[in-house]
Amino acid sequence: MPIYKFQLNGKPTSADSWDPAQPLLYVLRNDLGQHGPKFGCGLSQCGACTVLVDGKATRSCVTPIRQVEGKKVMTLDGLGTSEKPDPVQAAFIVEQAAQCGYCTNGMIMQAKAFLAENPKPTLEQVKQGLDRNLCRCGTHVRILRAVMRAANA
Amino acid sequence: MNNKTNTAPNLELSRRGLLKAGGAIIVNFALGARNAAAQAVPVNLVTARGALDVTDVDSFLMLHADGSVTVHTGKVDLGTGLRVAIRQMAAEELDVPLERVSLVDGDTGLTPDQGSTGGSTGLTRGGVEVRQAAATARAAMEKLGTGVQNGKTFKLKVDPKAPLKDPKTYTVVGKPVPRLDLPNKITARHTYVQDVVVPGMLHGRVIRPPALAAKLLSVDEASIRAIPDTRVVRMENFLAVVAKNEWAAIRAARDLKVTWSQWEGIPSSDAMEPYLRAAADPARSVPDQAVATKGDVSTAMSSSAKKFSASYYWPNQSHASLGPSCAVADVRADGATLWSSTQSPHGTRDNLAKIFGMPKNTLRLVYTDGAGCYGGNGNDDVAAEAILLSKTVGAPVRVQWMRQDEHGWDPKGPQQLLDIRASLDAQGNIAAWDAEMWVPANVPGARPLLSIDAAGLPQDHGQGAGLMTQNADPPIAAANVRVVAHMVKDTPLRPSNLRAPGKIANSFAVESMMDELAEAAGVDPVEFRLRGLTDPRAMAVVKKAAELFGWQRRTARRPQSQGNLMIGTGFSYVRYKQAENYVAMAMEVSVDRTTGQVKARRVACAHDCGLVVNPDALRNQIEGLVIQTLSRTLHEEVKFDKSRVTNVDWSTYPILRMTEAPSIEIALLDHPEIPLNGAGEAAAVTVPGAVAGAIYDATGIRLRRAPFTAERVAAAIKGS
């Protein structure tokens, strides 16, 4: 089986895949112990599977493993811990910005990429930035508050 | 909240507690430590505790030698914050610091059966029963003159008369304590059912037919020969693949060449209104249900000067869980373990044990968080599929639905049709109210599970979607009222309880009609409601919502305009189930003159559920109810043709996006002295009435058919 080499959360990693078209999501979850990225649709429509690839928010459910060869992949698992959360995670914790939490991975990873490009956004810009990430519990207003809090931290 | 309790999953805490209590055997399915390098999430199972009667204190409480407490509840946290609230109630009643109280929910081997977590009963039954057990325990300990009993069991019956603490003395209940699960969810350390791994576990995917009742004619197994370690499982019309690798299972399910029969047997979604009206024929239905009868509606109606009549339709809607349903089953010769995020751990366990012919005590369902379900989504179906496959292949199997499975096949919140006729007397009060509704009939027994039917195995064929007939009478004074429900036996898609079942549609119709009556009476919508209310709690929420919103009194439409946007306001009030929470809501919406897009701009909600256990978790629920119900009101309708559901992804079944989120202000009217009511549903009910009223104020158009999609609104504007 072909082996793919890339960086995962700052560490050199390799994974084999019987199918070069296997989406990154399944490799991360089933072979590399990552549980941040979630399967939501497999269609790049909901954002639950979002990871950063070379800093860009990427839908891992439709990204073939071969496409991340040599790249830097960052997942929610690698971002921070509850003892030492990343500033965006810390803001989500303070705002209690989740219900079931299934979309949370995507919201935070999308927000990370968004804030890197827009460090001082308006609320309207944050709404636009997260518009392709879906939340079914309706935690929208808390998520928006959390991202604004992280931006102003 | 200290960091130690933040990071410890609740099972972990109870496991340590059990170890300290002595005598417990730990069955460890751990595959490795939970850290960044781990290959899998460890699944620690505490040995089952045997009989767990809801009348025994020990079923709910375990007091450990170190002074900590484990609460066991059969209710489950579906993402609502139930765990923190029940911990607060137990800590308060036991006088134990909150951080010393851990909680296990929904494991049939460890928790008593407190019924399904539905109908907003999580705290009203779940929390209240735990609290009474705690009060019994505290009274017993006071009698003994000891503090928390050191690791001993009580062997006591729950005393329904054990005195409860005076709410005035509460120090834990009523505080906005943060949830313990959120830091873990936010840092990817929380175990969802999707994350459960059992050694030797295989991945299953079920292949659905192209029509609801199509027959499986032939399968070309050679078509997936190139996919490694994959096998096909076939039982009558049940077809699945099982593979070592998850992507292999997905590919195989997609690539397998299958021939199905043609089938057309349901009316299409566009034909539902005439279908429902015709289905009220006694030959095709069950007897009508008289929901409310007061006074003499016919006489009052005929003597009224101002009469109104309208029909309202609420569509079939999906739970549309963000993560498709998932379950892991490990069926062995001596019993089975099932990891599931069902809302009804004990009920589902009982039903599956019956279907698979297992003694109940040999099937253990371990509730494990999933994506929010908001009622009976695909969780029970996928649980049955995991057991069926594990039993067949002789290995643990994880089954996760694909997106098109969840949208296409979850049992649906059913469509509802209502006709309301109402009249005003000379003083502008409601003289007569005559409502008819068409809802699915209740048939006793469990809801049939997809793959059990497909495999030709016997099972219940019950039907039910919750208490759908409530809140169809006016929430204010009316002398003559009749509400009749036509109970439709055959509904095209399996009906199921979807958050605030029936009551959202009913209140939509009721509040829309109330709005018409107020306008005809020349009375401000808020004033119209206040005139018909005498209950001080009801009047308080109506006044508070109006105040919070800055409601501008109006006796006729007063639309505003901003460029291409028409702006209006609406108001709505409900007493949930006519007996529980009081909720009032004011809303401002904009309507785009050209595109028809409706956006809620700001929402003010006043909410009285009696005692508030955790105000922040409650606000989180109310915000979610507003947003989710806006989504259902503006966007959501399951479409189907004569064979199957046709909108099976997020582009064809859209939900409310971030750019559509309104600002939400909430006033909690706390009454610590009044028994609590659950709050996972009530605030949903007032949403569509307020939206419809606001659209009317903005445009002069009364929309009586949900959802209020941009296309539908644009067409209505064009035609007006």
What does this structure look like?
- The complex is a heterodimer of chains A (153) and B (720).
- Chain A is of the alpha+beta class.
- Chain A contains six helices and five strands; from the N terminus they run ββαβββααααα.
- A five-stranded mixed β-sheet of chain A has the order 2-1-5-3-4, sandwiched between helices.
- In chain A, strand 3 and strand 4 form a beta hairpin.
- In chain A, helix 3 packs across helix 6.
- Chain A starts with a strand and ends with a helix.
- In chain A, 61% of the residues are buried.
- The model of chain A has no long low-confidence stretch (mean pLDDT 97).
- Chain B has 720 residues and is an alpha+beta fold.
- Chain B contains 20 helices and 24 strands.
- In chain B, the strands form six sheets. A seven-stranded mixed β-sheet of chain B has the order 8-9-6-16-13-14-15, with helices on both faces. In chain B, strands 11-19-18-17-12 form a five-stranded mixed β-sheet, sandwiched between helices. Chain B has a five-stranded mixed β-sheet with strand order 20-21-22-23-24.
- In chain B, helix 13 links the parallel strand 18 and strand 19.
- Chain B is globular, with a radius of gyration of 27 Å.
- The termini of chain B are far apart.
- At the A-B interface, helix 1, helix 2, helix 3, helix 4 and helix 5 of A face helix 1, helix 6, helix 7 and helix 17 of B.
